[in-house]
Amino acid sequence: METIHYDAAGGVVVHDGHVLVLRRPSRGEIRLPKGHMEEEESQQETALREVTEESGYADLEIAGDLGHQVVEFDYKGKHVIRDEYYFVMVPASLRQIERTKHEQQFEPQWLSWEEALAQLTFEVEREWVRRAWNLDGHRSTAQV
């Protein structure tokens, strides 16, 4: 089986007690925004670009580094190894977030912390939300 290895970066976008997720109806998935790193692009630049491209939200800034994890899976007859880098992101100002054009395969939605943890399709992405929750100092009686 062929092995593919690449780097990706994304964001856990938080605003007013909610987390931005992307519904992908064609695959029945709820995901966090992320994507491939381009040559000579930093992890932070990739994360901001990918979140904007996939969600349509552009007025964001990085508020914290959530770290790195390696994800491995098989997809379409290939073994994929992906190094993921995630960041907590927030609106750059307190004004209302404005959406620009987004990738049509995704439907952006704001969920509470608890809803995001319950609805995200993949455990590795729930882990990014847990890290963001802990970094941001949020505490509740919810199972996180």
Q: What is the N-to-C order of secondary-structure elements (H for helix, E for strand)?
A: EEEEHEEEHH
The domain tally reads 1
Largest sheet, described in full? Answer: 7 strands, mixed
Helix-residue proportion: 10-25%
N-to-C span: 36 Å
Which residues sit in consecutive blocks of at least 5 with pLDDT less than 50? 139-144
Q: What's the Cα radius of gyration?
A: 15 Å
Strand content: 35-45%
Find the structural class using helix and strand composition: alpha+beta
The CATH homologous superfamily corresponds to Nucleoside Triphosphate Pyrophosphohydrolase
Q: Report the count of strand segments.
A: 7
The CATH architecture comes to: Alpha-Beta Complex
**What's the CATH topology label?**
Nucleoside Triphosphate Pyrophosphohydrolase
Broad shape: globular
**DSSP helix count?**
3
CATH class: Alpha Beta
Q: Mean pLDDT, rounded to whole units?
A: 88
What does this structure look like?
It is built from 3 helices and 7 strands; from the N terminus they run ββββαβββαα. The protein has 144 residues and is of the alpha+beta class. The chain has a single domain (2-135), classed as Nucleoside Triphosphate Pyrophosphohydrolase (Alpha-Beta Complex). α2 (113-119) runs antiparallel to α3.
